[in-house]
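Quick one, tokens below:
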């Protein structure tokens, strides 16, 4: 009675999710302009949230890092400002999206590199992981600056490929769960 396991069965929710992701990928590839505008809108919202979160945590960060925290304050203000500008001027923002992504990535990563020391209390592993991720983000930012048009087209293509892969994975999971 207590060891009874339920049969999972075909997972329709996972299957529908997979199909929806693949359909979204096709729509994205057929309408890259609309996709860029949508990404711009999402970027604006994320930048506003990131800016607010950075500013909200600034005083606590300043307690741990001292004067080095000014760069995070600057990054938070920049995030908030860019988000608001993007939100009210999507078309212009979409045209400069690659450059702004590059600047955003570079400023945030450099600010994080200056303030990584506060993670020492959590353990050296966290410091090393944060350093590696921030250095990788700097490299991505530099690459975006070097090839902005390729980066804009690539963003849509890579996002569509990711949606297809996630969709296929969801469909396979739905089918495999029939046997659970």
């Amino acid at each position: 009675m207590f060891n009874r396991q339920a049969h999972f069965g075909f997972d329709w929710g996972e299957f529908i999710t997979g199909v929806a992701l693949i359909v979204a990928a096709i729509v994205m590839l057929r309408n890259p302009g609309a996709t860029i505008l949508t990404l711009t809108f999402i970027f604006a919202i994320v930048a506003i949230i990131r800016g607010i979160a950075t500013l909200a945590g600034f005083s606590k960060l300043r307690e741990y890092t001292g004067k080095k925290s000014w760069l995070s304050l600057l990054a938070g203000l920049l995030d908030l400002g860019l988000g608001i500008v993007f939100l009210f001027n999507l078309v212009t923002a979409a045209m400069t999206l690659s450059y702004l992504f590059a600047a955003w990535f570079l400023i945030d990563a450099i600010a994080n590199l200056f303030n990584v020391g506060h993670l020492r209390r959590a353990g050296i592993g966290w410091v090393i992981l944060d350093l590696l991720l921030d250095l990788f983000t700097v490299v991505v930012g530099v690459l975006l600056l070097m090839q902005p048009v390729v980066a804009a087209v690539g963003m849509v293509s890579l996002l569509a490929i990711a949606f297809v892969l996630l969709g296929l994975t969801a469909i396979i999971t739905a089918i495999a769960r029939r046997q659970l």
